[in-house]
Protein backbone atom coordinates (compact mmCIF):
# COMPACT_ATOMS: atom_id res chain seq x y z
CA UNK A 1 0.00 0.00 0.00
CA UNK A 2 2.75 2.44 1.00
CA UNK A 3 4.63 1.39 -2.11
CA UNK A 4 1.64 2.14 -4.29
CA UNK A 5 1.12 5.57 -2.73
CA UNK A 6 4.83 6.33 -3.07
CA UNK A 7 4.86 5.33 -6.69
CA UNK A 8 1.89 7.45 -7.59
CA UNK A 9 3.19 10.34 -5.51
CA UNK A 10 6.14 10.60 -7.86
CA UNK A 11 4.02 10.94 -10.97
CA UNK A 12 3.29 14.22 -12.77
CA UNK A 13 0.58 16.00 -10.86
CA UNK A 14 -2.04 16.43 -13.56
CA UNK A 15 -5.64 16.03 -12.39
CA UNK A 16 -6.21 12.93 -14.48
CA UNK A 17 -3.19 11.18 -13.02
CA UNK A 18 -4.28 12.23 -9.55
CA UNK A 19 -7.77 10.96 -10.20
CA UNK A 20 -6.46 7.66 -11.43
CA UNK A 21 -4.23 7.31 -8.36
CA UNK A 22 -7.17 7.92 -6.07
CA UNK A 23 -9.22 5.35 -7.95
CA UNK A 24 -6.36 2.83 -7.78
CA UNK A 25 -6.02 3.31 -4.03
CA UNK A 26 -9.74 3.04 -3.54
CA UNK A 27 -9.90 -0.13 -5.64
CA UNK A 28 -6.91 -1.66 -3.86
CA UNK A 29 -8.52 -1.04 -0.47
CA UNK A 30 -11.86 -2.45 -1.62
CA UNK A 31 -10.18 -5.49 -3.16
CA UNK A 32 -9.16 -6.67 0.33
CA UNK A 33 -12.81 -7.40 1.14
CA UNK A 34 -13.96 -8.40 -2.33
CA UNK A 35 -13.64 -12.17 -1.78
CA UNK A 36 -15.36 -12.25 1.63
CA UNK A 37 -18.13 -9.96 0.42
CA UNK A 38 -18.85 -12.19 -2.55
CA UNK A 39 -18.13 -9.47 -5.09
CA UNK A 40 -16.03 -11.70 -7.34
CA UNK A 41 -17.48 -14.04 -9.94
CA UNK A 42 -16.38 -15.95 -13.01
CA UNK A 43 -17.53 -16.01 -16.60
CA UNK A 44 -16.68 -18.69 -19.15
CA UNK A 45 -15.87 -18.09 -22.80
CA UNK A 46 -16.31 -21.17 -25.00
CA UNK A 47 -13.56 -22.37 -27.33
CA UNK A 48 -14.24 -24.07 -30.65
CA UNK A 49 -12.17 -26.70 -32.44
CA UNK A 50 -12.29 -25.91 -36.16
CA UNK A 51 -11.90 -29.40 -37.66
CA UNK A 52 -14.64 -31.02 -35.62
CA UNK A 53 -16.79 -27.88 -35.06
CA UNK A 54 -16.95 -28.95 -31.41
CA UNK A 55 -16.70 -26.89 -28.24
CA UNK A 56 -13.72 -28.40 -26.43
CA UNK A 57 -13.36 -26.06 -23.47
CA UNK A 58 -13.77 -22.60 -21.99
CA UNK A 59 -11.61 -19.90 -20.45
CA UNK A 60 -12.49 -18.70 -16.95
CA UNK A 61 -12.45 -14.88 -16.75
CA UNK A 62 -12.76 -13.10 -13.43
CA UNK A 63 -15.37 -10.40 -12.83
CA UNK A 64 -15.54 -7.90 -9.99
CA UNK A 65 -18.58 -5.81 -9.23
CA UNK A 66 -17.72 -3.04 -6.76
CA UNK A 67 -20.77 -2.02 -4.67
CA UNK A 68 -20.50 1.67 -5.65
CA UNK A 69 -18.26 1.75 -8.72
CA UNK A 70 -19.96 -1.13 -10.55
CA UNK A 71 -18.07 -3.58 -12.76
CA UNK A 72 -14.28 -3.15 -12.73
CA UNK A 73 -12.27 -4.71 -15.58
CA UNK A 74 -9.71 -7.38 -14.69
CA UNK A 75 -7.24 -5.44 -16.84
CA UNK A 76 -7.55 -2.71 -14.21
CA UNK A 77 -7.71 -4.66 -10.94
CA UNK A 78 -5.48 -7.69 -11.62
CA UNK A 79 -2.35 -5.46 -11.87
CA UNK A 80 -3.39 -3.82 -8.57
CA UNK A 81 -3.85 -7.24 -6.98
CA UNK A 82 -0.40 -8.23 -8.24
CA UNK A 83 1.19 -5.15 -6.66
CA UNK A 84 -0.33 -5.62 -3.21
CA UNK A 85 -0.04 -9.40 -2.92
CA UNK A 86 -3.79 -10.02 -3.15
CA UNK A 87 -3.27 -11.94 -6.38
CA UNK A 88 -2.49 -15.09 -4.36
CA UNK A 89 -5.80 -15.39 -2.46
CA UNK A 90 -7.71 -14.18 -5.53
CA UNK A 91 -6.08 -16.83 -7.72
CA UNK A 92 -6.88 -19.52 -5.22
CA UNK A 93 -10.48 -18.37 -5.17
CA UNK A 94 -10.55 -18.45 -9.00
CA UNK A 95 -9.04 -21.94 -9.12
CA UNK A 96 -11.50 -23.38 -6.61
CA UNK A 97 -14.53 -21.74 -8.23
CA UNK A 98 -13.50 -22.67 -11.79
CA UNK A 99 -12.91 -26.34 -10.90
CA UNK A 100 -16.21 -26.49 -9.07
CA UNK A 101 -18.10 -25.03 -12.04
CA UNK A 102 -16.21 -27.20 -14.53
CA UNK A 103 -17.24 -30.28 -12.54
CA UNK A 104 -20.84 -29.38 -13.32
CA UNK A 105 -20.02 -29.20 -17.06
CA UNK A 106 -18.57 -32.67 -16.80
CA UNK A 107 -21.75 -33.99 -15.31
CA UNK A 108 -23.62 -32.64 -18.35
CA UNK A 109 -21.44 -32.99 -21.40
CA UNK A 110 -20.69 -36.02 -23.49
CA UNK A 111 -17.18 -34.81 -24.33
CA UNK A 112 -14.99 -33.83 -21.37
CA UNK A 113 -14.41 -30.07 -21.52
CA UNK A 114 -11.19 -28.36 -20.54
CA UNK A 115 -11.26 -25.34 -18.25
CA UNK A 116 -8.55 -22.70 -18.77
CA UNK A 117 -7.49 -20.54 -15.84
CA UNK A 118 -5.31 -17.44 -16.16
CA UNK A 119 -2.18 -17.42 -14.04
CA UNK A 120 -0.28 -14.31 -13.09
CA UNK A 121 3.50 -14.31 -13.54
CA UNK A 122 3.73 -13.07 -9.95
CA UNK A 123 2.55 -16.52 -8.84
CA UNK A 124 5.74 -18.13 -10.18
CA UNK A 125 7.84 -15.87 -7.98
CA UNK A 126 5.78 -15.80 -4.78
CA UNK A 127 3.60 -18.32 -3.03
CA UNK A 128 3.39 -21.94 -4.00
CA UNK A 129 1.57 -22.18 -7.30
CA UNK A 130 2.19 -25.91 -7.78
CA UNK A 131 0.79 -27.09 -4.44
CA UNK A 132 -2.08 -24.59 -4.60
CA UNK A 133 -3.17 -26.04 -7.96
CA UNK A 134 -2.67 -29.67 -6.90
CA UNK A 135 -4.55 -29.11 -3.62
CA UNK A 136 -7.51 -27.56 -5.41
CA UNK A 137 -7.57 -30.39 -7.99
CA UNK A 138 -7.63 -32.95 -5.17
CA UNK A 139 -10.28 -31.05 -3.22
CA UNK A 140 -12.57 -31.11 -6.26
CA UNK A 141 -11.53 -34.55 -7.52
CA UNK A 142 -10.93 -32.94 -10.90
CA UNK A 143 -8.85 -34.67 -13.62
CA UNK A 144 -5.57 -32.71 -14.06
CA UNK A 145 -5.55 -33.17 -17.84
CA UNK A 146 -8.80 -31.20 -18.11
CA UNK A 147 -7.20 -28.15 -16.48
CA UNK A 148 -5.20 -25.69 -18.54
CA UNK A 149 -3.19 -22.83 -17.09
CA UNK A 150 -2.74 -19.71 -19.22
CA UNK A 151 0.51 -17.89 -18.75
CA UNK A 152 0.79 -14.48 -20.38
CA UNK A 153 3.83 -14.19 -22.61
CA UNK A 154 3.94 -10.39 -22.39
CA UNK A 155 5.21 -10.48 -18.81
CA UNK A 156 8.89 -11.02 -18.23
CA UNK A 157 9.44 -13.57 -15.53
CA UNK A 158 11.70 -12.41 -12.70
CA UNK A 159 13.26 -15.86 -12.40
CA UNK A 160 12.76 -17.84 -15.63
CA UNK A 161 14.53 -20.96 -14.34
CA UNK A 162 12.36 -21.10 -11.23
CA UNK A 163 9.26 -20.66 -13.40
CA UNK A 164 10.40 -23.46 -15.74
CA UNK A 165 10.91 -25.82 -12.79
CA UNK A 166 7.34 -25.16 -11.64
CA UNK A 167 5.99 -25.65 -15.17
CA UNK A 168 7.76 -29.03 -15.26
CA UNK A 169 6.10 -30.04 -11.98
CA UNK A 170 2.70 -29.01 -13.35
CA UNK A 171 3.39 -30.92 -16.58
CA UNK A 172 4.32 -34.01 -14.58
CA UNK A 173 0.84 -33.87 -13.02
CA UNK A 174 -0.73 -33.89 -16.48
CA UNK A 175 -1.86 -30.26 -16.26
CA UNK A 176 -1.92 -28.38 -19.58
CA UNK A 177 -0.18 -25.09 -20.24
CA UNK A 178 -1.11 -22.40 -22.76
CA UNK A 179 0.94 -19.33 -23.67
CA UNK A 180 -1.49 -16.40 -23.62
CA UNK A 181 -1.25 -13.26 -25.77
CA UNK A 182 1.40 -15.00 -27.87
CA UNK A 183 3.40 -12.69 -30.10
CA UNK A 184 3.23 -9.67 -27.80
CA UNK A 185 5.97 -10.63 -25.36
CA UNK A 186 9.69 -10.86 -25.09
CA UNK A 187 10.31 -14.55 -24.48
CA UNK A 188 12.96 -16.02 -26.76
CA UNK A 189 12.32 -19.05 -28.90
CA UNK A 190 14.94 -20.97 -26.94
CA UNK A 191 12.90 -20.36 -23.77
CA UNK A 192 9.67 -21.26 -25.55
CA UNK A 193 11.28 -24.52 -26.66
CA UNK A 194 11.85 -25.46 -23.03
CA UNK A 195 8.26 -24.77 -21.96
CA UNK A 196 6.09 -27.79 -22.52
CA UNK A 197 3.10 -25.82 -23.65
CA UNK A 198 0.10 -27.51 -25.17
CA UNK A 199 -1.26 -24.45 -26.91
CA UNK A 200 -0.28 -21.01 -28.22
CA UNK A 201 -2.99 -18.38 -27.93
CA UNK A 202 -2.52 -15.95 -30.82
CA UNK A 203 -3.06 -12.47 -29.42
CA UNK A 204 -6.16 -10.62 -30.55
CA UNK A 205 -4.07 -7.68 -31.82
CA UNK A 206 -3.09 -9.91 -34.78
CA UNK A 207 -6.69 -10.95 -35.40
CA UNK A 208 -8.36 -7.52 -35.34
CA UNK A 209 -7.18 -6.42 -38.82
CA UNK A 210 -6.31 -9.88 -40.10
CA UNK A 211 -8.58 -9.70 -43.13
CA UNK A 212 -7.09 -6.45 -44.47
CA UNK A 213 -3.55 -6.62 -43.11
CA UNK A 214 -1.08 -8.90 -44.90
CA UNK A 215 1.53 -8.50 -42.16
CA UNK A 216 -0.93 -9.92 -39.63
CA UNK A 217 -1.67 -12.79 -42.02
CA UNK A 218 2.05 -13.53 -42.30
CA UNK A 219 2.43 -13.41 -38.50
CA UNK A 220 -0.51 -15.73 -37.88
CA UNK A 221 0.72 -18.13 -40.54
CA UNK A 222 4.20 -18.11 -38.96
CA UNK A 223 2.83 -18.75 -35.46
CA UNK A 224 0.72 -21.64 -36.77
CA UNK A 225 3.78 -23.18 -38.46
CA UNK A 226 5.96 -22.66 -35.40
CA UNK A 227 3.38 -24.25 -33.11
CA UNK A 228 2.94 -27.22 -35.44
CA UNK A 229 6.64 -27.91 -35.68
CA UNK A 230 6.84 -27.85 -31.88
CA UNK A 231 3.80 -30.08 -31.39
CA UNK A 232 1.53 -27.35 -30.04
CA UNK A 233 -1.97 -26.32 -31.00
CA UNK A 234 -2.99 -22.75 -31.90
CA UNK A 235 -6.06 -20.86 -30.79
CA UNK A 236 -6.96 -17.41 -32.13
CA UNK A 237 -8.27 -14.93 -29.54
CA UNK A 238 -10.77 -12.16 -30.21
CA UNK A 239 -12.40 -13.62 -33.33
CA UNK A 240 -15.38 -11.38 -34.06
CA UNK A 241 -16.32 -11.84 -37.72
CA UNK A 242 -17.06 -14.73 -40.12
CA UNK A 243 -14.39 -13.31 -42.45
CA UNK A 244 -11.73 -13.63 -39.74
CA UNK A 245 -12.88 -17.17 -39.04
CA UNK A 246 -12.75 -18.19 -42.69
CA UNK A 247 -9.24 -16.80 -43.07
CA UNK A 248 -8.07 -18.49 -39.85
CA UNK A 249 -9.30 -21.83 -41.21
CA UNK A 250 -7.34 -21.17 -44.38
CA UNK A 251 -4.21 -20.29 -42.42
CA UNK A 252 -4.45 -23.59 -40.55
CA UNK A 253 -5.34 -22.30 -37.10
CA UNK A 254 -6.70 -25.14 -34.93
CA UNK A 255 -9.18 -23.38 -32.65
CA UNK A 256 -10.95 -20.07 -32.03
CA UNK A 257 -12.35 -18.05 -29.18
CA UNK A 258 -14.17 -14.72 -29.48
CA UNK A 259 -17.43 -12.80 -29.61
CA UNK A 260 -18.33 -14.49 -32.94
CA UNK A 261 -18.81 -17.75 -31.06
CA UNK A 262 -19.87 -16.28 -27.73
CA UNK A 263 -19.16 -13.57 -25.22
CA UNK A 264 -17.92 -14.81 -21.83
CA UNK A 265 -20.97 -16.24 -20.02
CA UNK A 266 -21.97 -16.73 -16.39
CA UNK A 267 -22.11 -20.41 -15.34
CA UNK A 268 -25.87 -20.83 -15.87
CA UNK A 269 -25.76 -19.34 -19.38
CA UNK A 270 -22.66 -21.36 -20.22
CA UNK A 271 -24.44 -24.58 -19.21
CA UNK A 272 -27.27 -23.60 -21.58
CA UNK A 273 -24.75 -22.83 -24.32
CA UNK A 274 -23.13 -26.26 -24.22
CA UNK A 275 -26.49 -28.03 -24.13
CA UNK A 276 -27.48 -26.56 -27.50
CA UNK A 277 -25.64 -27.32 -30.76
CA UNK A 278 -23.32 -24.61 -32.09
CA UNK A 279 -25.96 -22.37 -33.72
CA UNK A 280 -23.95 -20.71 -36.48
CA UNK A 281 -24.20 -21.73 -40.11
CA UNK A 282 -21.07 -19.63 -40.50
CA UNK A 283 -19.11 -22.31 -38.68
CA UNK A 284 -19.44 -24.63 -41.69
CA UNK A 285 -16.24 -25.53 -43.43
CA UNK A 286 -17.29 -24.30 -46.89
CA UNK A 287 -17.35 -20.68 -45.68
CA UNK A 288 -13.57 -20.85 -46.24
CA UNK A 289 -14.22 -21.16 -49.98
CA UNK A 290 -15.77 -17.68 -50.04
CA UNK A 291 -12.46 -15.96 -49.35
CA UNK A 292 -11.34 -14.29 -52.59
P1 LIG B 1 -6.89 -12.66 -21.64
O1 LIG B 1 -6.61 -13.83 -20.78
O2 LIG B 1 -6.06 -12.50 -22.85
O3 LIG B 1 -8.44 -12.75 -21.98
C1 LIG B 1 -9.01 -12.34 -23.19
C2 LIG B 1 -9.79 -11.06 -23.06
O4 LIG B 1 -10.39 -10.75 -24.31
C3 LIG B 1 -10.94 -11.12 -22.06
O5 LIG B 1 -11.06 -9.82 -21.47
C4 LIG B 1 -12.14 -11.41 -22.95
O6 LIG B 1 -13.38 -11.03 -22.39
C5 LIG B 1 -11.79 -10.57 -24.15
N1 LIG B 1 -12.42 -11.05 -25.38
C6 LIG B 1 -12.89 -12.29 -25.66
N2 LIG B 1 -13.38 -12.34 -26.92
C7 LIG B 1 -13.21 -11.13 -27.46
C8 LIG B 1 -13.52 -10.57 -28.75
O7 LIG B 1 -14.04 -11.22 -29.67
N3 LIG B 1 -13.20 -9.25 -28.93
C9 LIG B 1 -12.61 -8.50 -27.95
N4 LIG B 1 -12.33 -7.24 -28.24
N5 LIG B 1 -12.30 -9.01 -26.73
C10 LIG B 1 -12.61 -10.31 -26.49
P2 LIG B 1 -11.29 -9.64 -19.90
O8 LIG B 1 -12.27 -10.65 -19.40
O9 LIG B 1 -11.61 -8.19 -19.66
O10 LIG B 1 -9.89 -9.99 -19.27
C11 LIG B 1 -8.76 -9.19 -19.52
C12 LIG B 1 -7.50 -9.82 -19.01
O11 LIG B 1 -7.53 -9.92 -17.57
C13 LIG B 1 -7.28 -11.26 -19.48
O12 LIG B 1 -6.74 -11.29 -20.79
C14 LIG B 1 -6.33 -11.77 -18.43
O13 LIG B 1 -5.00 -11.39 -18.74
C15 LIG B 1 -6.78 -11.03 -17.19
N6 LIG B 1 -7.61 -11.95 -16.37
C16 LIG B 1 -8.92 -12.27 -16.47
N7 LIG B 1 -9.31 -13.16 -15.54
C17 LIG B 1 -8.19 -13.43 -14.81
C18 LIG B 1 -7.92 -14.30 -13.69
O14 LIG B 1 -8.77 -15.03 -13.17
N8 LIG B 1 -6.63 -14.29 -13.20
C19 LIG B 1 -5.64 -13.53 -13.76
N9 LIG B 1 -4.39 -13.58 -13.22
N10 LIG B 1 -5.86 -12.72 -14.81
C20 LIG B 1 -7.11 -12.67 -15.34
MG1 LIG C 1 -6.27 -15.74 -21.03
MG1 LIG D 1 -5.12 -13.29 -24.25
MG1 LIG E 1 -4.41 -10.52 -21.88
TrEMBL record:
It comes from the Bacteria. Residues 24-278 form the EAL domain. Coiled coil: none annotated. This is EAL domain-containing protein.
Amino acid sequence: QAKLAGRNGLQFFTPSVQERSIRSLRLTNALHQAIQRGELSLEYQPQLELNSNLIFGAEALIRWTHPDLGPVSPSEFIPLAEMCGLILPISQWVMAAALQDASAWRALGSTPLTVSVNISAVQFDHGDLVSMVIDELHAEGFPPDRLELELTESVTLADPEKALAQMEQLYAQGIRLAIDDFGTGYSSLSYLKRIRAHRLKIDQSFIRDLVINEDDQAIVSTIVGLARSMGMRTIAEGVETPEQLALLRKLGCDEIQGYLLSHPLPQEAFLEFIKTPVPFTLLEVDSAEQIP
